[in-house]
């Protein structure tokens, strides 16, 4: 998983070249050859049990181990023994694996939960299932990108935790948001009709569960990767000074709306209200971009067949034109623009709203590069530390 950036870069150079063995991607197969996907628990072709191993970033077929309730990978080259996450048999239907030796009954993604929906409410079982599917996809991507994912032991200890909450006894819904590592998600967001109504009421072009998770975790990583690091001064140059009054900024946004020139400076109207929200919105879009490109390239989808003419972004839009990977990053962004153009047309052909209802102004491409540099530097640092520990 640690070589994600090298892998996706090489696949962009030759979109028909599949990823090297052992690298990250989205193509999984059962041992019988049947294609399987991230959340599958059983192969429908041969009946073998399936599980996602977060340490490998892969879905594998399983056979029972020698000890009760243990499993080994049918097609793996090692003898690691796993357990299934205890939430497999819960409405969450978690297919992630837990190394039998680590003493946990819950997988890494489920360990992040502090509060789950009240299952005495009949609708909450299905809601929790949808929430966990989105959260697992988020966590899998964070691990693939080489970002630290550490469950909090107690709130605000520097770790990450989730409260998946419904309305209180008075019917008041919780506010989706972040508070020093504690991310609250309103479980009603899992209801399509509720989410669609809010999207229309708030004039949003895009609102999904995965989008909520990606946005809110962006605030967490700001606290972790920006606030205490050398990146803070540069952040203020790119996004603005986050020390401005946050509550007043939100109030101004809701009362007066975004500035008239927001389309030339921000990815969304909400991003325009405060540097923290600009960061979180840009972070979420970076995750959208990287995950969707990874999926498309993994399945051999090439933009070489695109017949529309796109004006490619050049180094002029970057905040660091001399970065060693500047051309590679531009290739990512330009491929993204081409891919989303095609996907939007496909959506329109089905009578659906645009797959990606956004326009990337030059300023946002620069901000995306900043996010890319932060994520990649942290990933490379963790990889170097791990290699040093192995060689010690």
What can you see in these coordinates?
With 392 residues, the chain is of the alpha+beta class. It is built from ten helices and eleven strands. The protein has a four-stranded mixed sheet. It has a three-stranded antiparallel sheet with strand order 3-4-5, with no helix packed on it. Strands 1-2 form a two-stranded antiparallel sheet. Strand 3 and strand 4 (58-64) form a beta hairpin. The two termini are 22 Å apart.
Provide a compact summary of the structure.
The chain has 392 residues and is α+β, with helices and mostly antiparallel strands. It has ten helices and eleven strands. Helix 5 packs across helix 8, helix 6 runs antiparallel to helix 10 and helix 8 crosses helix 10.
Low-confidence stretches: 16-24
Estimated radius of gyration: 21 Å
Largest sheet: spatial strand order:
8-9-11-10
Q: Mean of residue pLDDT?
A: 91
β-strand number: 11
Structural class: alpha+beta
How helix-rich are the residues, as a percent range? 40-55%
How do the helices and strands follow one another from N- to C-terminus?
A: HEEEEEEEHEHEEEHHHHHHH
Distance between the termini: 22 Å
Number of helices: 10
The outline comes out as globular
Q: Beta-strand percentage? A: 5-15%
Sheet bearing the most strands, described? Answer: 4 strands, mixed
């Amino acid at each position: 998983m640690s070589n994600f950036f090298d892998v996706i870069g090489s696949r962009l150079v030759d979109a028909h070249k599949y990823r090297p063995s052992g690298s990250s991607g989205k193509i999984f197969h059962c041992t019988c050859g049947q294609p399987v996907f991230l959340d599958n628990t059983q192969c429908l072709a041969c009946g073998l049990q399936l599980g996602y191993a977060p340490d490998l970033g892969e879905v594998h077929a399983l056979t029972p181990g020698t000890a009760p309730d243990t499993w080994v990978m049918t097609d793996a080259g090692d003898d690691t023994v796993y357990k299934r996450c205890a939430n497999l048999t819960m409405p969450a239907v978690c297919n992630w694996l837990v190394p039998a030796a680590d003493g946990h009954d819950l997988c890494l993604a489920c360990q992040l939960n502090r509060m789950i929906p009240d299952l005495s409410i009949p609708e909450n079982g299905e809601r929790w299932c949808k929430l966990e599917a989105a959260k697992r996809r988020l966590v899998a991507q964070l691990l693939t990108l080489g970002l630290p994912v550490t469950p909090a032991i107690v709130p605000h200890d520097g770790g990450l935790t989730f409260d998946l909450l419904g309305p209180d006894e008075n019917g008041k819904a919780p506010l989706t948001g972040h508070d020093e590592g504690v991310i609250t998600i309103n479980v009603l967001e899992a209801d399509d009709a509720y989410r669609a109504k809010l999207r229309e009421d708030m004039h949003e072009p895009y609102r999904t569960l995965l989008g909520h998770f990606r946005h809110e975790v962006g605030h967490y990583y700001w606290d972790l990767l920006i606030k205490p690091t050398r990146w803070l001064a540069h952040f203020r140059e790119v996004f603005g000074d986050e020390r401005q009054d946050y509550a007043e900024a939100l109030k101004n946004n809701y009362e007066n709306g975004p500035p008239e020139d927001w389309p030339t400076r921000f990815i969304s109207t909400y991003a325009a209200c405060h540097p923290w929200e600009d960061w979180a919105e840009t972070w979420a879009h970076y995750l959208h971009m990287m995950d969707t490109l990874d999926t498309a390239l993994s399945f051999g989808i090439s933009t070489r067949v695109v017949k529309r003419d796109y004006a490619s972004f050049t180094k002029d839009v970057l905040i660091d034109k001399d970065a060693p990977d500047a051309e590679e990053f531009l290739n990512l962004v330009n491929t993204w623009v081409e891919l989303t153009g095609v996907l939007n047309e496909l959506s329109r052909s089905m009578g659906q709203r645009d797959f990606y209802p956004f326009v990337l102004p030059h300023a946002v491409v620069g901000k995306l590069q900043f996010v890319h540099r932060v994520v990649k530097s942290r990933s490379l640092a963790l990889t170097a530390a791990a290699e040093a520990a192995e060689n010690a």
